[in-house]
C-alpha cells in the first residue's frame, strides 16, 4: 500500500529496496503509480465530415480563428484566421461594447505551399494598446461573412494577481482529443489562458503530411482558441521536415499558421520566447532548435532568466515539449541533452514548475535536481532540491498515436505520481505564495481531480509542499 492506502503494482513493490536506499539518501516519500484501470481502446482520428471540423457558413467566412498574447505584458493580442475563397478583408473591428466596435486593426495575409497542398489565405493581426482585464468583442470577415468573437485581456501584471492557466499537450484531433477539450471547457476551474506544450494537429501522420489536417485542427480548436489566448510551444509534430517530398523548411505549416510575440522578449525565433501574464512569467523553450552553448537559444535564455523580477511576477513557469524527467518507456532520455545544459540555470533561478508534453501520459515529479555531476565525481543521481522545479508531463491530450502505457520499473524515486490516461490540468495562482494545481483524467467527471498539489512559490515561500492523488 502507498501513503494514500492504494495497492501498488508488483513491480513497484519490487523496487522497495531501492526506495529504502533513497530514504537513507534524503528521500522522504516514495512515488505512486496509479492503479486506475481504463478501458483499452484504439485512439482514432475524427473523420473529415465530423461536426467539429465543419466549415462556417457563408461566402469566404473566416475560420480557424485563434488568439495568443501579442506583446510581453498582456496589452496586445494576435488574432489569426483563415479564409478559403479569396483573401477578403484583413481588418479586425474591435471594441469593449458589443454594439460599438470603434477600433480597427489591419492584418497581413499570405499563403504557403506544402508539397501538393496550397493553404487558404492566412491572416494575422495584432490588436495593441488594449486595456487590462477587459472584455473585447471582435469581428472578422468584414464586408463578406462577418463573424463575431470575444476575449478578456489578462489583468495588469503584478505580484498577487490571481490567474488560472489550463494545461494541454499533444492534443491531435481524435475522439479522445475532443473529450479532453470538452473536459477543459466544462471544468468549473477552467483557465483564462492555455499553456500548450506542443504537438498540435498531428497532420504529419497522414500521407505527405496532409495539411488539410492542419485546417481541420484549426476549426476543431476554434471554439476555445478564438475566445482565450493559447500560448504555443513547438513540438516534434510541428517540424514537418520531409525531404523525401521536397519539404526541407522545418516548421513550415506551424510557423505560417501560429504567430507568437517572440520579438517582444528579445528572441530571434518564434520557437523560444517569454510572456508575462498576471503574476506569472512564462518561458517557452524549443526542444527541436539548437540549444548548445553559443547558440541563439542558449544565449537568449542566459540573458532572459536574470531579467525575471519575482517581485513583479513571482511565478516562473517553463514550457518545453520534450520532458527532462520521464519514467515512461517512450521518448526516454530524449530531453536529456537539454536538461544537462539548462537545468543548472532553472535551479539557480528557482523555476517553480516545468510543463512538458511529448510522452502521451501524465507524470508529476518531486522537486529534484541532477546538476552535481562533473564527469569524475559519480554524482549522477537526481536528489531532492527545494530550489528545483516540479516537472510535469502533460502530453496526454489524446492524439491518434494512443497512450504511452509502458513504464520503467521500478518507479524512480523522483517520480511522485504517474498515470497513463488522457486528460488536462489546471494551474490556479492564488497570490505570490500559493497556487493550486490539479490534473483531471478524461474518464472522470469534469470537476474530479485525479492528482493535485498546492504549489508554494520558490521565491516567496520555498517550503515543502504536499500533494494528493486518487
Ligand atoms: Fe512530441
UniProtKB/TrEMBL annotation:
Domain Calcineurin-like phosphoesterase stretches: 164-362
Gene3D superfamilies in UniProt: 3.60.21.10, Purple acid phosphatase-like, N-terminal
GO molecular function, one term: acid phosphatase activity
Purple acid phosphatase N-terminal domain span: 62-153
Top-rank taxon, per record: Eukaryota
Enzymatic reactions: a phosphate monoester + H2O = an alcohol + phosphate
Residue stretches making up the Purple acid phosphatase C-terminal domain: 388-447
Pfam families assigned to the protein according to its UniProt record, in alphabetical order: Metallophos, Metallophos_C, Pur_ac_phosph_N
Swiss-Prot/TrEMBL keywords: Glycoprotein, Hydrolase, Iron, Metal-binding, Signal, Zinc
SUPFAM superfamilies, per the entry: Metallo-dependent phosphatases, Purple acid phosphatase, N-terminal domain
Catalytic activity, EC: 3.1.3.2
Keyword Zinc: yes
Protein family according to the UniProt entry: Belongs to the metallophosphoesterase superfamily. Purple acid phosphatase family.
PANTHER family noted in UniProt: ACID PHOSPHATASE RELATED, PURPLE ACID PHOSPHATASE
Protein name in the entry: Purple acid phosphatase
Organism in which the protein naturally occurs: Apostasia shenzhenica
Amino acid at each position: 500500500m502507498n501513503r494514500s492506502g492504494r495497492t501498488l503494482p508488483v513491480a513497484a513493490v519490487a523496487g522497495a529496496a531501492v526506495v529504502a536506499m533513497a530514504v537513507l539518501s534524503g528521500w522522504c516519500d516514495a512515488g505512486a503509480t496509479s492503479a486506475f484501470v481504463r478501458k483499452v481502446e484504439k485512439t482514432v482520428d475524427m473523420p473529415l465530415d465530423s461536426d467539429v471540423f465543419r466549415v462556417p457558413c457563408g461566402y469566404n467566412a473566416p475560420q480557424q480563428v485563434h488568439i495568443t498574447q501579442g506583446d510581453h505584458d498582456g496589452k496586445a493580442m494576435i488574432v489569426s484566421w483563415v479564409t478559403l475563397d479569396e483573401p477578403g478583408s484583413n481588418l479586425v473591428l474591435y471594441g469593449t461594447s458589443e454594439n460599438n466596435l470603434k477600433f480597427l486593426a489591419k492584418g497581413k495575409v499570405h499563403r504557403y505551399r506544402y508539397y501538393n497542398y496550397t493553404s487558404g489565405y492566412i491572416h494575422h493581426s495584432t490588436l495593441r494598446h488594449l486595456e487590462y482585464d477587459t472584455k473585447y468583442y471582435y469581428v472578422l470577415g468584414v464586408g463578406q461573412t462577418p463573424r463575431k468573437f470575444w476575449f478578456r485581456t489578462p489583468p495588469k501584471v503584478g505580484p498577487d494577481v490571481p490567474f488560472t492557466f489550463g494545461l494541454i499537450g499533444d492534443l491531435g484531433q481524435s475522439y479522445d482529443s475532443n473529450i479532453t477539450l470538452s473536459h477543459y471547457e466544462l471544468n468549473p476551474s477552467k483557465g483564462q489562458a492555455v499553456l500548450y506544450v506542443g504537438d498540435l494537429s498531428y497532420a504529419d501522420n497522414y500521407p505527405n503530411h496532409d495539411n488539410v489536417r492542419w485546417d481541420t485542427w484549426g476549426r476543431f480548436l476554434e471554439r476555445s482558441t478564438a475566445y482565450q489566448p493559447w500560448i504555443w510551444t513547438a513540438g516534434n509534430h510541428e517540424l514537418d521536415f520531409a525531404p523525401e517530398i521536397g519539404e526541407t523548411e522545418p516548421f513550415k505549416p506551424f510557423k505560417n499558421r501560429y504567430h507568437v510575440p517572440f520579438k517582444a522578449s528579445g528572441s530571434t525565433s518564434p520557437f523560444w520566447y517569454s510572456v508575462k501574464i498576471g503574476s506569472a512569467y512564462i518561458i517557452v523553450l524549443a526542444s527541436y532548435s539548437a540549444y548548445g552553448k553559443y547558440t541563439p537559444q542558449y544565449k537568449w535564455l542566459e540573458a532572459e532568466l536574470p531579467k525575471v523580477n519575482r517581485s513583479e511576477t513571482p511565478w516562473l513557469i517553463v514550457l518545453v515539449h520534450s520532458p527532462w524527467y520521464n519514467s515512461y518507456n517512450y521518448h526516454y532520455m530524449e530531453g536529456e541533452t537539454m536538461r544537462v545544459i539548462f537545468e543548472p540555470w532553472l535551479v539557480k533561478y528557482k523555476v517553480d514548475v516545468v510543463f512538458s508534453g511529448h510522452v502521451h501520459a501524465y507524470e508529476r515529479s518531486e522537486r529534484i535536481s541532477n546538476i552535481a555531476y562533473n564527469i569524475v565525481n559519480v554524482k549522477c543521481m537526481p536528489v531532492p532540491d527545494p530550489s528545483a522545479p516540479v516537472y510535469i508531463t502533460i502530453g496526454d491530450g489524446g492524439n491518434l498515436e494512443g497512450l504511452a502505457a509502458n513504464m520503467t520499473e521500478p518507479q524512480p524515486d523522483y517520480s511522485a505520481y504517474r498515470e497513463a490516461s488522457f486528460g488536462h490540468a489546471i494551474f490556479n495562482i492564488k497570490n505570490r505564495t500559493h497556487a493550486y494545481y490539479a490534473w483531471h483524467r478524461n474518464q472522470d467527471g469534469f470537476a474530479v481531480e485525479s492528482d493535485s498539489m498546492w504549489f508554494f512559490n520558490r521565491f516567496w515561500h520555498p517550503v515543502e509542499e504536499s500533494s494528493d492523488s486518487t
